[in-house]
Amino acid sequence: MKKRIILIFIGVTIIIMCLFIINNSSMLKLKYGLDSVVILPDDIYKRYEKYPDVNFDKQFIIEVKDKKIEELHISLSDIVYLPELKQISFGILFRNNDYEKMNIPSPVFNVYLKDKNGNKYKSGGFVKNSGTFETFQTRFICDVDISAVEELTMYICPLELKESKIIEKKEIMKLIYTKDMEPLTEIKDK
Question: Where are the transmembrane segments (predicted)?
Fold first, then answer.
């Protein structure tokens, strides 16, 4: 009888673990770098039809040092730069319980880049991959030409919903690129 209870317990534990992995598989792949953070917006597909010589496969990685941003309880992925599209893609990982009680609208954060000359590059959009305990937002920003900037700073601003209005809270800055990082490493395996 005791062996039977132990076997049932082990079987139920294995089933729960399998369901957890299946439920969280896409988020876990992104979290551990097993899947690409690159998003190609619809208009890029349209441009591709007009410009078939654009190389979507040419991608470079910008390594993010100190991926954790403690003030916001988030982590950033490394950044992928697509030079022919002038697009940057990256991911933001956060625990669901850090933000679900705060009545926050879907994007959770406003994100933009600013170069040394003050040019601002707004977020082009995001894809949300929710898991049981964490969410991974894959984001992209277009019209960023790394070869034309000396440094890029990322600004991340948490959002809050108050009295039916979206309020931006204090933004956090993070330097993500300087010319000193050149040459960037090309991603060969996609």
Answer: 6-22
**What are the structure tokens assigned to 2, written together?**
């005791």
Full domain range(s) for residue 135: 2-186
Number of domains in the chain: 1
In the predicted model, is pLDDT for residue 146 greater than 80?
yes
Q: Do the Cβ atoms of 91 and 29 come closer than 8 Å?
A: no
Confidence of residue 184 (pLDDT cuts 50, 70, 90): confident
CA–CA distances in Å: residue 164 to residues 103, 156, 160, 161: 10, 22, 10, 6
* Backbone region of residue 94 per phi and psi (left: phi > 0; alpha: psi in -120 to 50; beta: other values): beta
> What is the CB-side half-sphere exposure of residue 91 using CA atoms within 13 A?
28
pLDDT, residue 187, reads 77
The DSSP string of 57-117 is T--EEEPPSS-EEGGGTEEEPPEEEETTTTEEEEEEEEEHHHHGGG---TT-EEEEEEETT
Phi-psi region of 104 (alpha: psi -120 to 50; beta: other; left: phi over 0): beta
What is the CATH number for 163?
2.60.40.10
The answer to whether the Cα torsion of 147, 89, 44, 185 is positive or negative is positive
Question: How far apart, in Å, are the Cα atoms of 127 and each of 3, 100, 134, 137?
Answer: 47, 17, 14, 6
Given the structure tokens 């899947």, which residue do they identify? 35
